[in-house]
Each structure stands twice: as structure tokens, then as C-alpha cells.
Amino acid sequence: MYEKALEDAVACIACNPSFAKGYSRKAAALCGKGDVDGAIQAYKKVLSLDSTNDAAQKELTRLESEKGKRTSSAGGWSSEDTGRQSSAKSSDLSSRKWWLLNIILLVAQIFSIIHAVMVIFITSHYESKNAFGRAILAALFSFTGQAILSYGFPSFSTGKKLWKAFRGKASPAEIKDIANFAMDNNTHNIFYCSLTLSAAPSLLLLIPLFFENAISVSKRAVQLTSSLPAWALALKTAVSACADKVLGREPDIRRMISNAEVLIFFALILELFTSRRNILLLILYGQLLRVRYIVNADSKLAWNTVASRTDSVFLHANCPSLIKIAYNKVKSLAAGLVSQGSNQS
After folding, report:
1. In the chain, how long is the greatest CA-to-CA distance?
2. Distance between CA 165 and CA 160 in Å, rounded?
3. Predicted confidence band at 340 (pLDDT cuts at 50, 70, 90)?
4. Which of 108-122, 192-206, 228-242, 248-262 is the least confident region?
5. The pLDDT of residue 22
6. Is the pLDDT of residue 167 over 50?
7. What stretch(es) of the chain map to CATH 1.25.40.10?
8. CB neighbour list of residue 142: distance below 8 Å, 6 or more residues apart
9. 1-76 — its CATH code?
10. What's the protein's topology in the membrane (predicted)?
11. More exposed terminus of the chain, fewer Cβ within 10 Å: N or C?
12. Residue 261 half-sphere exposure, CB side, CA atoms within 13 Å?
């Protein structure tokens, strides 16, 4: 029974790697099979995608507690009290590290948001450029930190997996781990930040980062304040009320981010005819959008909207046949690139 449930969960994750419930089903199946470590990693992934999932947080706490008890028992402690004290100290230290890392990431994200807003109001080109760079660097730091919290620090085994995959000798499980990381939203944001560091400062480039940070700040603030004591109820209520205004509109914000990504692509094409041209940035950004189209439903919807509007213009009855032929060739070429990437993934 659990084998079938695990297979269904893995298939669900393969279709949509950002679907938190897929990882929750995987964790439940692994827990039923007795794979506590695998279930813990799956629940951590659920919380990285949906930090407000209280059920996943409770299950993760329970499994980590059970794992701590088993480790203490297997270690041959001479006293049960000693084992409990050691487990409590370890849990307390882990909790403090989690708090510290999340506070650092929260500060970095707020720093990025503030400097993104400063770009609007600063009149000096030099200061505006510096604010743009600081906003990108802070966002890059926060997304990298979130990826580390989700997947851990890269190790020698990580490089070994990548080398085996490059040589075509990686196992299906290793390829799956690499694919999950490559399709993760944080990975896309890290790549996007690294690209924009080489771009000319532009307010348009900051729009996706601003809204991504706003969503992440809201989730992280709620997660951090949820464990505050009773005397901080007023702070918890205020943070929750502010965060709900953002998280309640998250689907709309996600669609806005996807629309901005498409708009940025066309802006980069237009910049080819100006002194701000950056051909390498356009090519790499196009590859990022290609992946986003495959794994992100909002990105696919944004491109389909663009396609329907361009069809109404270039395939109009009064449009010259030469333009129709050229447009259809370009459209079929783009569709071929996307389908090729989908088959490879």
C-alpha cells in the first residue's frame, strides 16, 4: 500500500515540483514504510514550499523527536535521563540555529525590498545603481540561504553526482535529486539574480525579486512569530494581519511575477537596438524562461496569453501573407524548443 502511495507522490512531484502536498504525501508514505530520515527530509521540503503548514511542522517535530530517542537508545547511554537531557540540548541548539538563520534571511530580504523601493526615489544615477546592486545581492544571499536550508550545504558527494550526471552514468535516484534542485523556485531565483548582476540597472528587473521577497518575508515572519510566548500576542497578531494581506493575494502576485518575467524578455530584445544591449544576458535569460515555462503553470499561462494576443494581430485576415508565414515559422520554432526541453526534463 505504501509503495503505491509513494509512487503516486513521486509522480505528482515530477509533474509539479513546487506542489507542497506532493511532498507531504511522499513524507506520509515514507513514514509508513519506516523511512524516518526520508520522511523528515520530505517534511522539510513541504515547509520550504509552504511555511504555514502546521500539520507538516507537527509531524516533523514528532519524527525528529523519535529519531533523537532512537539515536540516544542506540548509542548505549548508561541512563535514560542522560539521553533525554542530551536530546533536549541538541533540540534546543538546533532550534536556536534555525531561528538565527531565518532571522538573518528575513533581514536580508527586508534589506532587498527597501533598496528596491529606493531605486524609484533616488535621482542620482550613481546612487540608484548602487541601490540596485545592493537589492540584487541581498536577494541572492536570501535565496541561496533558503536553498541551503532546504537541501543542505553542497558537499563532495554533490559534485560527484553532478560529474556522474554529466558523464551519463548517474543512477535514476541521483538524477532525480539533481532534477528536484534544478527545478526548485529558489534555484531559478538564484540564477536570475546572478544574471541581473551583469545587467544595466533597471526597475523592471527588480519587480520579480520585490514580489518574491514580499511573499517570502510574509511566510517567514509568520513562521518566526508563531512560536513566540503569550506576552507577545499583540506582535503575533499584527504580523499575522499584515502577512495575510500579502499571502491572501499570493496567486495573483505569482501571476504578476510571471507576466513581469515575460515583459523583461521582450524588453531585453528591444535593448538589442540600443547601447544597453546584452546578448549573453538575453540568451541565458531565455533558457531560464524555457525551464520556467515547463515547470511553472503561471509562466505557461503568461506565455499563452501573449501567444493568443499576437495571434490576433499577426494571423488577422487583413495581415499580409508574408508576415503570417514568418510569424508561424517563429512560433513553431519556439514551440519546438519548449517541447524539446520538456522531453529532456
Report:
1. 88
2. 9
3. low
4. 228-242
5. 75
6. yes
7. 1-76
8. 105, 108, 109, 112, 213, 216
9. 1.25.40.10
10. Multi-pass membrane protein
11. N
12. 30
HEC string for 207-265: HHHHHHHHHHHHHHHHHHHCCCCHHHHHHHHHHHHHHHHHHCCHHHHHHHHHHHHHHHH
For range 119-123, the mean pLDDT: 90
Distance CA 183, CA 52 (A): 22
Mutual angle of helices 54-74 and 36-49, in 10-degree steps: 150
pLDDT of 74 reads 44
Banded model confidence at residue 209, pLDDT cuts 50, 70, 90 = very high
Residue with cell string 534571511 = 105
Residue 280 burial by Cβ neighbours in a 10 Å radius (0-12, 13-18, 19+): exposed
What angle in degrees, to the nearest 10, is found between the helix axes of 2-15 and 20-33?
A: 160
Residue 152 burial by Cβ neighbours in a 10 Å radius (0-12, 13-18, 19+): exposed
- All three cell numbers of 306, joined, read 501573449
**Residue 296 phi/psi, 5° resolution?**
-115, 120
The alpha carbon torsion through 266, 269, 270, 271 (nearest 10 deg) reads 120
- 6: confidence class by pLDDT, cuts 50, 70, 90: low
Kindly list the distances between the CA atom of residue 131 and the CA atoms of 112, 206, 207, in Å, as whole numbers in the listed order.
9, 11, 14
